Amino acid sequence: MSENGQTRETVPFEVPHPHLKEFLEFLPELNKESDRGMVLIATSYLDELLKRVLLSFFREDRASEILVEGFNAPLGSFSTRIVACTALGLINDHERQEADCVRKIRNHFAHNVHVTFEDRNIKDLCSNLKMAAQPYGDIVVSARGLFSTASVGLIMSLTNRPTYVSRKRLKAVEWQR
Fold this sequence. Notes:
Largest sheet: none
Distance between the termini: 67 Å
Shape: globular
């Protein structure tokens, strides 16, 4: 009951937060995945978010879409999107470092068939993730846990970014001759 004695209706979380609906559907699926599946799906989600951030900033026209989508798009890869978002001031240096580390982990999983979170290289990379849940007391966070919490943290950091960035969307300018 509320303070005035009336009952409150329970409103599903995604009703007042529709931008989180996709994330709420993504999270349980991510946790069901194998090590490789978790890494590839999380980085794919991050890649898509960076694409949305760029498209929210660029002018609304076909040229903007050509830059980020389709065959040979100059900003069509995860790494170029990270660099572009950084150069344009759309993500900060901390987010760039985290995204780069996640990208390096993704590359190991994408190019090595038998890699897992138990591999020394992967453990070392995961230990560099700053947004990851940290060990405390006698609680140990596995490399998978480090990756999972860091990638979800970065996703949460970027989930609203396209909306905020769109407020600064580029417009066509008539330049003097």
